[in-house]
Amino acid sequence: MLKNILLPTMLVILSYGFWISPDFKEISAGVAIFLFGMLSLEEGFKAFTGGSLEKILQKSTNKLYKSISFGIITTSIMQSSSLVSVLTISFLSAGLIGLAQGIGIIFGANIGTTTGAWLIAGFGLKVKISAYAMPMLVFGVILIFQKSKSLKGIGYILAGLGFLFLGIHYMKDGFEAFKSTIDLASFSVTGLKGLFIFTGIGIFATVVMQSSHATLVLIITALSVGQISYENALALAIGANIGTTITAIIGSMSSNISGKRLAAAHLIFNLTTGLIAIILIKQIMFSVEYISNIVGIAPTDYSLKLALFHTIFNLIGVIVMVPFINKLVIFLEKTLKDKKSTYAKIETSKYLNDSVLEFPSTAIAAIKKECQHLFNNAFEIIVHGINLRKKDVISSAPIHDIINHTFTDKIYDIDTFYNNKIKGIYGEIIDFSTQAQSSMPKQYIEELYKIKLASRDIVEAIKDTKHLQKNLYKYSKSSNEYIKNEYNHIRKELAKVLRNIYIISTTPQDEESILLLSKTKLQIQKFDIIANGVLDNLIRNKYITNEMATSLMNDSVYANNIGNHMVSMAEVIFNNTNDMLINSEDIDEILSKKGNV
Amino acid sequence: MNITKFIKRVTSILDTDISKKNNEKKRIKSLLKKLRLKRKDIEKLLIPNITKKEKKILKEELEMINIHIKKGENILKKLKMEA
Q1: pLDDT tens profile A10-41
Q2: DSSP A9-25
Q3: Nearest Cα to A192, choosing from A147, A235, A146?
Q4: Predicted complex ipTM
Q5: B56 with A509: Cβ contact below 8 A
Q6: How many CB atoms lie within 10 A of CB A174?
Q7: Residues 6+ positions from A427 with CB-CB distance below 8 Å
Q8: What local confidence, expressed as pLDDT, does residue A595 receive?
Q9: Using DSSP, how many helices (H) and how many strands (E) does chain A show?
């Protein structure tokens, strides 16, 4: 109910805001463009999932020191910690890196951003990356229209970055009015009270201007003209450091839960660092003086001292927080829970490792194990795709009962789950197999080929489920009892097949596995409604329309295919005695004895 | 000599191919034993006072077990001949 009211209310409020304030319109447009940029970025990074970008990212962030260094270097080059944190959120959302790695990058970005203060203080230099927005958009869109997947990916990334810059630009423009109203001198207060007030102003100014660099410029200018005291400037810098997290928070709004967790980590880190800086301000100031004397910074050069202060307190923050990274990850995972945790991350392989490539039997064992992993994911997708609950299918509850317990009232999103839980692993299996094959003796290649086919069977079964799902959903709500029953019958038969396959995948006993596989093969053959005359009967008696008959005919083929793919896969992955299994001739013989065919 | 070559040489010296076949024989023998036991169990269940439906299912299962046993015995024969 609340959800239904929320959207129209929001639209009305926004429309009113646009009508009364052009600035508000510009800020909102900036936020919208920014979020669109985030979506585009994610789309771009997804094109490289499982590819070279992932490898580069993983190699450069697989250790904490590496991810921190990655954050330092990229932020120093891009001169925007906000942009690096937004990019990190999109890496994380696309499943390219883990949360701990992401936090490492954010820590590094906080150190990297201090180079900006040095540049501003030392050279009065400010790199305006927003100037690149327009060319990026043009190049990006041209590349999006290319056929090559990689070029398309690069196009989305460029367009995404372009939109991000453009969004920030509009937000800044929109806030321009507020900027002119900030007169720092009017707040000049000393002591602890002043410290907190100026930290607050720093936060506010950075949120308004969407750039800690812009705030730093403001601080250095105010400091140079004596509008504020040195202490007030330090407090402002602390505030700017906290305020800069707003960009990541906005960026995480369009991302999945991993992105939100990272934005929260960014906020926690910057808040903690800020708090430490406020508490230890006297000691840090003393360190600044001490280091300034050593490196030769003039006692009156407050701009450089401010840059040094900025660096020291961020370094302290990283040193203090690094030992708690794992605890922070656990805390964030506990507190920020995903409503649909299965959407969270693109799954990658668990068992494929380059170190086993040299040894054929170990490589085959690893690929087989990975196929089992793929099957486990596929099993869930297929079960949910035919609107059953996994816990029911793997239980011993009577099949006709479990049919009545549906998994969802809506259409289960097979595509998303396929992309997140199947595509990456399948791609890796194929890639790894091809690599392994090149250095494998002949006797292993046949087995490897069978495993590759088995993994393809898994993928095909999901695709057949997707085809079947549409009508299954449609006719399960039909007023025609006959068609409804037939589709429930399909669900029932598939539930039997899936339960058997699950038992085969978990039983250690060969005789049970071989018998169940043969039984399942026989059951699938019997289930063919075209061969067993069920369809003819329904059409002849006009119980169903022609359209229903066509759908049912096609869908029973899909259901049959799901069963056959599952059995073919299980023969390779879960059974060691394939030569003993019954074949199609044996099935015909058994059925003809019963007079079923 | 690299590790792969070393492993290849060791397997050829130890003639692991033969031990692989022996293992296969053992596995099939044990499986056949279990299947025969299962066949006996089903035959015991085929008593006159069970329903027609139950009888049909059990007979079907029996037939499948017979096919498995027949195929298993053939594989075993082949392995013995190769040895």
Answers
A1: 888 888 888 887 777 887 787 788 778 767 87
A2: HHHHHHHHHHHH-HHHH
A3: A235
A4: 0.75
A5: no
A6: 22
A7: A50
A8: 47
A9: 28, 0
Burial of A12: CB neighbours in 10 Å, binned 0-12, 13-18, 19+: exposed
Residues of B in contact with A514 (CB under 8 A): 31, 35, 68
Helix spans in A439-583 (H): 442-476, 481-506, 510-526, 534-540, 546-573
Q: Could you tell me if A421 and A375 are in contact, meaning their C-beta atoms sit under 8 angstroms apart?
A: no
DSSP A145: T
Tokens of A324: 């708690």
Residues in A closer than 8 angstroms to B35, CB to CB, are 511, 514
How many CB atoms within 10 Å of residue A514? 27
The verdict on a CB contact (< 8 Å) between A579 and B35 is: no
User: Structure tokens of A274?
Assistant: 């800020």
Q: Which helix (H) or strand (E) holds A295?
A: helix A281-295
pLDDT at site A381 = 93
Encode burial over A539-574: b for 16+ CB neighbours within 10 A, e otherwise.
Answer: beeebbeeebbebbeebbbbbbbbbbbbbbbbbbbb
8 Å CB contact between A408 and A385 = no
Q: Does A531 reach chain B within 8 Å, measured CB to CB? A: no
Total-model pTM = 0.51
Instruction: Report chain B's terminal Cα–Cα distance, integer Å.
Output: 32
Please report, as a single letter, which amino acid is at residue B42.
I
pLDDT tens digit sequence for A110-126: 888 887 777 666 655 44
